[in-house]
Amino acid sequence: MRDADEIRQQAQAALERDPRVNPHRSPIDVSIEGPCATLTGEVAGIDGKRRAVECVRAIPGVERIVDRVRVAPGESLGDSAIRDKLCGYLLDEPVYKRMAVSCRAEGGGETLSRRPDEAEGRIEIAVADGVVTLRGEVFSLSHRRLAAVLAWWVPGVRDVINEIAIDPPEEDNDDEISDAIELVLDKDPIIHAGQIARHVRDGRVVLRGLVTTEEEKRMAEEDVWYVEGVRDVVNELYVQPMPAGREPMRSGPAPIA
């Protein structure tokens, strides 16, 4: 077994080389116990969190990672408010209409949101110190991934721990990640999803197509980073402002308000 100090030094060096992580601005502590690496810290964005995990995962001798890296929230929101907003997202989302949804905030008791007579799956939400934990059962990987992205979209969320099980089990692959990305982009009211193409290989995503603003380009990439299983994102979207009074046509269902 390799020396823990050697693994830690290699991990810290890998974090420093990745421009998305920037450990000088957002320090990340790496502790090694046997084959397990635990990452602790706070980063500016979801891309830094995801890349930090991938950097350490690639170090020889690391077989398991405990990810305790939080994302600094752009807006401060209490746990009860986070819970209520996320419950609203899930209750309004058509793909979850036949599922039981229950929510709990630290110290705030449980708020039962919905319990159908014949529920087709369930999602349980717990919120503590800005960290959302999702539990329950759904019948597809896309449903599991979408629930986590909806949680990330709530202001004040610092991390999402997704423990939702898939019943019956499904094999995960790049096609599943691509399907989830399509679903997520179509739900974002800022994004014109029909103008964006995506290519996924080994969890690495390339985005191509047209967007109308730099903000839409940035938000499309951020949405992709929120999708579980994404290891890297190459953003090749081209910004082409639309003439006044014209907007690209959307495709798919209406986004979440």
TrEMBL record:
Domain BON: residue ranges: 3-73, 100-168, 173-241
Identification of the protein by name: Transporter
Lineage of the organism: Bacteria, Pseudomonadati, Pseudomonadota, Gammaproteobacteria, Acidiferrobacterales
Cross-referenced InterPro entries: BON_dom (IPR007055), Lipoprotein_DolP (IPR051686), Transpt-assoc_nodulatn_dom_bac (IPR014004)
Pfam families: BON
SMART domains the record matches: BON
Source organism: Sulfurifustis variabilis
